Amino acid sequence: MTVDEVIAQPTVETASIVVFMYVEPVARPMATYRLTILPGDGTGPEVIVEAEKLLAIIEQYTELAFEKTTIPCGGKHWLDTGEEWPEGSFEHCRDNSDAILLGAIGWPGARLPNGDLAGGQVILGLRSGLDLYANVRPIKLYEGVRHKIHDEFTQVWKPSKVDMLVLRENTEGLYHSLLRRSALRAQGLEEKEDPKLEFDGLTGELAWDPRPISRKGSERLIRMGFEYSRRRNGSPGDGISRVTCVDKSNVTRGCQLFRQVFRELGAGYPEIRGEEAYIDAFTMWMVRNPEWFDVVVTTNMFGDIVTDLGSVLQGGMGMAASANIGDVHGLFEPVHGSSPKHAGKNVVNPIATLNSVQLMIEWLGMQHSDDVALRVSDLIEQAITEHLGEGNLLTYDLGGTASTSQVGSAICERLANLLTKTSETIH
Question: Nearest to residue 387, comparing CAs of 375, 377, 395, 376?
Fold first, then answer.
């Protein structure tokens, strides 16, 4: 099946998205954005349902409208059909999408013959093929969220002390080879393998991965970090705007280049304090003193690790949203993975996905100078903040018993009320 055949299939509306509508909606679409939705594997489709409920609220109460295309994809799809997604899907995402929303990728036993993750051409292929060079990960602790430590829920870190933004380089580094293989496969092109190398002092069977870091890749990621810092309120501890470069430049040449570029670009932002840390020390400081950090820029693999560690500060992976953005395209996803053991149980936390929608609406607003979208993104943030602050409906990972759909519907209802109250200011 091709992507055109998928698009032509009828869709089924979710009845629960309208059960809490109290007033007549405003139906004056002014900006229509083309969204490609990739539900993916495991719990991905479940959290995407909650995202679509949120999008329906936005459409019903504002001038924003969404032209949505849903494409099946992932490891389970590959096991069932022999394809990771329908032919033409990459081109559709590239040419016919203003933004892309992904659920999760990964299914037990779903591996390609070369050992790569089945479904990798979806997320990894899009990251590399669309040049989504910045993985943007907010690490913010909301009031009402407790931390699960030793199987107990307690307030370890203070909400007022945890609010940082990590920018991870997304196309180079240790994952470069896999990213490129996935991108070439997604576009139907011949995959390329890295050249064979010999290593002095090593004999017998070995495996290795290159870790290329370029000046261009470093410059655009680090510059974005300084620009984000300009729009934020500084570090929670002292209010000072700072960008922290995290690397291992005392050991690796790629990191030496990354830090050199950081210093050069930092000179152009005298109002922002530039600081530097080695990755091993940073992981300690991040946990002990998160209030020190405003914006963090780092390389691909290090960013992958520290952002998952950072999710502990914010209450777990169920709270961790992300944006994969470039100069033209943007892909938004929760980072908790597909969690196959919870699939179909309606128990996982949808807030990471709803926060990813908030990032998507904010990005669309910035890309298109759309003040309505920017205002709506603020109200999504407010709805989530108020919901968690009350603490009445929480999923198991936050110490509650609420279902995925209950939490999603409650936040949607709160957003509907906020949009109703502020309707005169957002149209």
Answer: 395
